């Protein structure tokens, strides 16, 4: 019997291999890095001196999720210009919140946040997993980062049975806060598998503050630790996204279709990079600099240090010919300090129950929003947590409910305009914007000690990062 299916080209196979290895923007950029390195491109660090020369091939990465790649023409001279393609690496997804530990009706759940304008009902009844990056402390005290992609289904967001909601086919209504929380396990299984080796110190012998085990299920941390080959107690922070476990593939009667997530916009990213690499044979006679710019956070407005609204593009292009101000920016770190909302005892339902800075004396508040209304990232929060640990200052996590708009600060603006690593923090208070506001004396003490510790400990923490 003759098969009706058409053959699959090497180009399609290459793309499917790429996108199946790229469940997140971090993985996408890491795979782009592999492609570029194999083609002879040299990585430039944005905190080091650059020496650009004709026929040189270079790439620079910003916060693991944005990359610029450049091939300098053999006949290029300053002022000749650039031939550029721009795309983005991110796609709408559900992201694990800073406090993900959630229990309901004997189910262990993972608290998630909506990134971008997703069609969220398509995430229901899918076999989901986790992917992203994890920051952890090594036995020698250094801080390392590892990209994770759990290769089996561990999460699911089940729909409600039609018997319990008879009009579900006529009117599907999803509350993003209440109906998109993912099921991880049964509570009885969590009790059976709970770690019996809990300790209150890290691998470097220091006392743990802001214990991550209080924010995330122990089984989840143990899973991440096994992926990173570290101890669960040494995990400091992470950026984790939910991802479909069904691989991308070809389909249709004659294999004429590609079935895949993240085509918007990893397909453009892949094709642009391949085009640049494939053009290297004609670079000798080129008078321009050829380049590809792949940004993160396009789906949330591009206003981040690694987004298209940032100074990343200007810094990078300017540094092809000069190199001073931008190096200073790359070695900098910005704390955006604005006051934070403590939970009002009469309006506690207006907060995500797992992200309430409920005590005015509970510590400095780290503000996170995956749509970049706050500038905090896993990397900048990692630095902040280490600074707070060394300063003996407690921290609290704040993230808005999914069904309410989020405020913002100067942090995202400065992060975007400067291309500078930024974190948003605040001290908790009540009656914000009233003629008479209130906080606590302990909040003032924590805030003062925090800034003392920042200026005293930043150099030590910054130099401990291994990326």
Automatic annotation (TrEMBL):
Main enzyme class: hydrolase
Name of this protein: Aspartyl aminopeptidase
Gene Ontology cellular component annotations, sorted alphabetically: cytoplasm
One GO process term, biological-process aspect: proteolysis
Subunit structure: Tetrahedron-shaped homododecamer built from six homodimers.
Family of this protein: Belongs to the peptidase M18 family.
EC number annotated for this UniProt entry: 3.4.11.21
